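Work Package 4 report. The design task specified in the project plan requires that, given a folded chain encoded as structure tokens, an amino acid be chosen for each position. We show below one input record used in the internal validation round.
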């Protein structure tokens, strides 16, 4: 067995999709499929239940997942133990799980952390919310940003800020004129949003707000990326989507406008750390988050 086989297996197990796992690993999907199949042959078990439309972990795959994560964590620690910085000064690696849509807040956190902890280097890891929480609990990550999660086993969730959601609209639409969009005014426009399976907190927040405003949104097609969603929204019939304000600040698209809503849509962001995490790990990161929240 090879480390890359475990790495590919964990990526597929977290994404439950070979294509998305390959994108995360920045390699071709055939290579992922081949290495996972080779791992299955070496272990003599099926790790995934593959059907025409879904990928699921088998019982053997579920048992292997925490062990594979432990192997990868041990390999990372081994690399760090023998690494010799060019400066001769030991550098501490902070393994930090990031979330989509953090926008300029993530850069602010990293800059503030660097200013107060120059000997600390952040290694960013992208993974689905559940996978990030499991990695924190297992020690594979030191901390992770998550949204809309009330609790999780083995971790402590510390709210660091509350993110406002903005409506994205074609710049030519009549609702793009006002500085604030009344939520009921969007009732006749199709909403482009990810499936609830991929982001339950966001979908529940938005659909709940729409219901409170007296309507059920018309669901339109949602391309696989935000970039494609915004392009489709401006090229086709009028529609709308939402994104976090911190993310919107990093986008400069003349064909799209971003507007707050009335009532406001707000999502809490938390820092997930292990229940037994020490202040040496948590305190500097929380101070950096406070800087980002203030800015």
């Amino acid at each position: 067995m090879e480390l890359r086989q475990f790495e590919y297996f964990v990526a597929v197990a977290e994404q439950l999709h070979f294509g998305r796992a390959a994108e995360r690993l920045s390699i071709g999907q055939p290579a992922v499929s081949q290495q996972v199949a080779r791992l299955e042959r070496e272990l003599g078990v099926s790790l995934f239940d593959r059907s025409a439309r879904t990928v699921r972990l088998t019982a053997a795959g579920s048992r292997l997942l925490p062990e594979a994560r432990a192997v990868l964590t041990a390999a990372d620690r081994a690399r760090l133990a023998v690494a010799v910085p060019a400066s001769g000064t030991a550098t501490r690696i902070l393994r930090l799980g990031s979330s989509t849509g953090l926008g300029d807040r993530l850069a602010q956190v990293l800059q503030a952390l660097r200013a107060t902890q120059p000997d600390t280097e952040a290694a960013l890891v992208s993974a689905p919310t559940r996978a990030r929480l499991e990695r924190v609990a297992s020690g594979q990550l030191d901390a992770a940003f998550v949204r809309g999660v009330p609790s999780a086993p083995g971790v402590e969730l510390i709210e660091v800020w509350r993110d406002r959601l903005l409506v994205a609209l074609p710049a030519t639409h009549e609702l793009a004129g006002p500085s604030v969009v009344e939520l009921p005014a969007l009732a006749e426009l199709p909403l482009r949003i990810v499936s609830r399976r991929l982001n339950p907190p966001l979908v529940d927040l938005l659909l709940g707000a729409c219901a409170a405003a007296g309507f059920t949104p018309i669901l339109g097609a949602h391309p696989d990326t935000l970039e494609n969603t915004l392009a489709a929204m401006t090229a086709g019939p009028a529609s709308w989507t939402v994104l976090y304000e911190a993310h919107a600040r990093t986008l400069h698209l003349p064909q799209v406008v971003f507007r707050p809503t009335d009532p406001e849509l707000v999502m809490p962001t938390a820092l997930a750390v292990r229940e037994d995490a020490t202040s040496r790990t948590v305190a500097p990161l929380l101070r950096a988050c406070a800087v980002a929240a203030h800015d």
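The CA atoms of residues 214 and 224 lie 29 Å apart. Validation will be extended to a larger panel in the next phase.
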